Amino acid sequence: MTKSPLKSSTPSQACAPMSPPSVPKPPLERAASPTSLPEDSLRGGRLKVLTLACPDGRGQAMAHLRLPTVGTATRAGLVILPPFGEEGNRARRFLAHLARLLAARGIASLLLDLSGNGESPQTRAPLRIAEWFAEIDSAVKRLAASAEQSVPTAIFGMRHGGMVAAERHRCAPAGGPDQGLILFDVPPEPVGGRLARVRRRLFSDPAGLPPLDDGAHTCLHDPELIHYVSRIPVIPVPSDESDVPDPANPSAVHRLAGSTCAPPVWAQREALVPAELLLALAHRLESILVQEGSAQ
Amino acid sequence: MTPITFPCGPDRLVGSLHRPPVGNAEHVGIVFLVGGPQTRAGASRGLLHLAEGLCASGIHVLRFDWRGEGDSEGARRPFDGRDEEIHAAIQAMRETSPDVRSIFLLGLCDGASAALLHAGRRTPLADDGVSPSGLILINPWMRDDDLRPPLGSPGRLPVALLTPFHRMRRSSVTVLESRLLEAARRARPPVLWLTARNDPTGRDALIRLRASRWQELREKPSRLLSWAGDDHVLALPDTRIRIVAWIRRWLTDLRVIQGKDRAG
């Protein structure tokens, strides 16, 4: 077969969803060499795709459980809450690569599609955010059951997934959930009209949950909150250095070295997963979960 | 919906299988080929909901993540080099859905181009269990580049407003189109072409497909249909309802499903 002249020009921009026709699209980004990614991130670990029953019989939430390879002890666990909407679509391979890297380091992960998102079949988000909390609880239990022994566990929330995770901690009874909280690139406020509407509906829930008027971003830097979730510390990984105000308790906040990446670096459509960021994040998560988690 | 994984060379691909309820199931399966760097749910989850609509009308559907995309392992490949993945997905559907007798490929955007190129390499299309029985190609990608005409230029005008000169310029044969044409002539698969008239990709494909060079490849049993709108990724419920109905009607004409009315 003759060499295709198309290899460096793909039509990905044409698949951008719901973009107004009048908005010019950015120049096509060329694909980087796939060899820039470590082999551990391409394949590895034991993958089980699960369905978790949603509370109140609303259906099922899809979860991807990735365990270390046979013979490798599980040293820690991580429930991953991906971004919502198109961000989740774009971030998926980044998170899948991350899960495989963590599996190679002995860290089990469970990537949970909250109902109404990703592969979970429901069309809409639930009416009460507590239902998402229940799905996360179910995921935590399923992850714990997969390990041979008790291991440090944390919730890793990215973008809007991080907002839900932060809200779960905030609304938890005194003492907070047992898991640590790690937040990656959580936005100061929801992005997009539909998500904003969902958030308004959920975060001002009439069932008594407190409204999140100050936004998860502020919430993250509440000293009390950081204190009680700091069994495994919060890591606000900024999309931009200027996004992050000085935290009230700097000792409890870890910054990812060299994380001055452009905002959408984990979500670029054509450029492959940024290997440098991926490796740095996996290394940092391992350090927090295994070393600091076991020391507490 | 049932999650599955299946092998593809050294990698495992992750998919979601939609099985219609027993008693309502046709003997037809459709393997979805998502376009661009998207997950198997598609942008705005359009393909997930389209699969649910087809499944409700009795058709088996398998959606899967390409290698290196979404949850699947491995390094990603260009859309014109995905034969191994398509072959593995068809085999996975055969194994997981033994009642399915005919398997069609449904491709969106460059997934549509990948489907046609794949069919062209499996010539002649044979009833060998791993060749698709036909193709459903939605807004197929037929250009060599990603250049879009600037705002206000004739390239932005609706098809009906173009002068013959502009029509001729816009429909000049690209390298990819010639490869697709060659593949289609070689395999001669039944194709249901579906394009959104106001979507740049769909409009571009529609102009090309209306040219005489494609005439014999859009006539029966193939069919070319288009709808007014720019819903490239099938994000809108109305688009999906229309497409489910068109697919059912076409499959009925091909006599691979029964023609009775079903909820969709």
Characterize the structure shown.
- The complex is a heterodimer of chains A (296) and B (264).
- Chain A is an alpha/beta fold and 296 residues long.
- Chain A has helices at 39-42, 85-104, 129-146, 160-171, 193-203, 215-220, 223-228, 275-295; strands at residues 46-53, 60-67, 76-81, 107-112, 153-158, 180-184.
- A 6-stranded mixed sheet of chain A has the order 1-2-4-3-5-6.
- In chain A, helix 2 packs across helix 8.
- The termini of chain A are far apart.
- With 264 residues, chain B is an alpha/beta fold.
- Chain B has one domain (2-253): Rossmann fold (3-Layer(aba) Sandwich).
- Chain B contains 7 helices and 8 strands.
- In chain B, strands 1-2-4-3-5-6-7-8 form an 8-stranded mixed sheet, sandwiched between helices.
- In chain B, 52% of the residues are buried.
- At the A-B interface, strand 1, strand 2 and helix 2 of A face strand 1, strand 2 and helix 1 of B.
Layout of helices and strands:
The complex is a heterodimer of chains A (296) and B (264).
Chain A: H1 39-42, E1 46-53, E2 60-67, E3 76-81, H2 85-104, E4 107-112, H3 129-146, E5 153-158, H4 160-171, E6 180-184, H5 193-203, H6 215-220, H7 223-228, H8 275-295
Parallel strand pairs in A: 3-4, 3-5, 5-6
Antiparallel strand pairs in A: 1-2, 2-4
Chain B: E1 2-8, E2 11-18, E3 28-33, H1 46-56, E4 60-64, H2 83-96, E5 102-108, H3 110-121, E6 134-138, H4 164-170, H5 175-187, E7 191-196, H6 200-209, E8 223-227, H7 237-253
Helix pairs in contact in B: 1-7, 3-5
How much helix, percentage-wise, in residues of chain B?
25-40%
Span between termini of chain B: 16 Å
* Mean pLDDT level of chain A: 64
**How are the strands of the biggest sheet of chain A laid out side by side?**
1-2-4-3-5-6
Q: Give the SSE string of chain A.
A: HEEEHEHEHEHHHH
Query: What is the highest CATH level, the class of chain B?
Result: Alpha Beta
Oligomer: heterodimer
Brief summary of the model shown:
The complex is a heterodimer of chains A (296) and B (264). Helices cover 33% and strands 13% of the residues of chain A.
